[in-house]
Specification:
Helix content: 40-55%
Oligomer: single chain
CATH class of the largest domain: Alpha Beta
Radius of gyration: 24 Å
Number of domains: 2
Distance between the termini: 49 Å
Structural class: alpha/beta
Length: 435
């Protein structure tokens, strides 16, 4: 998020200095390389480095002294309790205060619990020895991994939690070249809550549709048709009504846990969020059980898992349902091949030792008893399944993202099982053909 913010602000024409304490990252930035996979970002970094608008340094003092607006984009990981670890925010706030000269606008960009902005303000006041004024603001990010650059330049809204007119003016000017969006001006606490509430609501929406998919499995309905009918209601909408093996990534699980903790701290039991989290934690194991039922057993079976990242167009493996699924299959005695177009090397330390990794999806499925789709990468969805059928030992597909056409695969002779779709019931009569 910090790198996207820095590079894209530079692309708007501002002079931006990115500060990081990791020397290896700084060296890669200087070479125009980036340590993450985010479509379009490397080009923007190189372009603005060449134009002299974007620089990088490990010297926080230099960054603070040379800047009028300072964005805090540090990590805010979860503690075991679900509470957000604000130690990085606290440390950088102290050092900003020590190095400040003249007016500074300190903007919290990291996802933080409500009242963090006030805490940052108190921290800066405590350590600031100068006499100049400063402002603290909240500008939560709504970037989606895989489309972060597009989201920066085409935001649905820009939320500014501010205390003074000067802070509002500076931030409006900063984003003035971004057109066709709306500014949402609030107090700091409301801005902080908007971020956590948005992610928690979307996570809840996913868990709701996954719960409904289980009902569809049991009664013979089709979740894709149900979701389509629901989504036509403008009060509901189609987004985040795609059933699957659950949400992953860093943001949703972390923010859900943090918001539950915020509720507890405020003497409000956010039961609906606890339920959403529980459904998501169970969803992978629900799907694994569906696989086991379909195959009679997974012990001794050779299975191909396609896709390891929590979503396509990113190399992020944090809280990935696919990794959880792989471990569950191995624990139950399966032999597993894995394929991912981007994150294979990154995933190897996170996988069981006996896993076989493949850089080619066709090699991964060769002589397997079933294929399991966990991430809807184009390289997977657009595979030639006529060719796949010639390679596999048994033409069985478990689609954990409902990304493939069950009808087409069935016509090709595959036994298809999605999440809450009718393929399970329609193909049940053909089980004898595969065993």
């Amino acid at each position: 998020m910090g790198l996207v913010q820095a590079a894209c602000l530079a692309d708007l024409g501002h002079r931006v200095m990115g500060i990081d304490h990791d020397p290896e990252k700084l060296k890669s930035f200087e070479r125009g390389e980036i340590p993450i996979y985010e479509p379009g970002l490397e080009v923007i970094v190189k372009r603005n480095r060449k134009a002299g608008r974007l620089s990088f340094s490990g010297d926080l003092r230099e960054g603070v002294e040379r800047s009028k607006i300072i964005f805090i984009c540090v990590n805010t990981p979860p503690l075991d309790t679900g509470e957000t670890d604000l130690s990085y925010v606290g440390n950088v706030s102290k050092n900003i205060a020590r190095y400040m000269t003249g007016y500074k606008l300190i903007v919290s960009k990291s996802t933080v619990p409500v009242e963090t902005g006030r805490w940052i303000e108190k921290t800066v006041k405590r350590y600031y020895k100068g006499k100049g004024a400063f402002d603290v603001a909240s500008n939560p990010e709504f970037l989606r991994e895989g489309t972060a650059v597009h989201d920066f330049f085409h935001p649905e809204r820009i939320v500014l939690g501010i205390q003074t007119k000067q802070a509002e003016t500076l931030l409006r000017q900063l984003y003035s070249k971004i057109k066709n969006t709306r500014f949402v001006i609030t107090d700091i606490e409301s801005a902080e809550l908007i971020k956590h509430a948005s992610n928690s609501f979307l996570a809840t929406k996913i868990s709701f549709i996954n719960s409904l998919a289980r009902v569809c499995d049991n009664v013979g309905a089709d979740i894709t048709q149900v979701a389509h009918g629901m989504g036509l209601d403008s009060r509901i909408g189609h987004k985040f009504l795609q059933a699957g093996i659950g949400f992953g990534g860093f943001c949703f699980p972390k923010d859900l846990a943090a918001f539950i903790h915020i509720g507890d701290k405020s003497n409000v039991d956010l039961k609906i969020l606890r339920a959403a989290r529980a459904v998501n934690e169970e969803q992978v194991f629900y799907f694994v059980d569906r696989i086991r039922q379909r195959l009679k057993t997974v012990r001794g079976k050779s299975l191909a898992v396609l896709g390891l990242t929590f979503k396509p167009n990113t190399d992020d493996l944090r809280y990935s349902p696919a990794l959880k699924l792989v471990h569950a299959l191995v624990d139950r005695g399966a032999s597993v091949n894995v394929y991912d177009p981007i994150a294979l090397e990154k995933a190897k330390p996170l996988l069981p030792d006996q896993i076989r990794s493949f850089s080619d999806p066709y090699a991964a499925v060769k002589k397997t008893d079933a294929i399991i789709v966990c991430t809807e990468w184009p390289q997977i969805v657009k595979m030639d399944f006529k060719k796949v059928k010639r390679l596999v030992r048994k033409p069985i597909v478990f689609d954990g993202r409902n990304a493939l056409s069950g009808k087409v695969l069935t016509q090709l002779g595959f036994l298809y099982t999605g999440v809450g779709v009718r393929g399970w019931q329609e193909n049940r009569k053909n089980d004898h053909l595969f065993y």
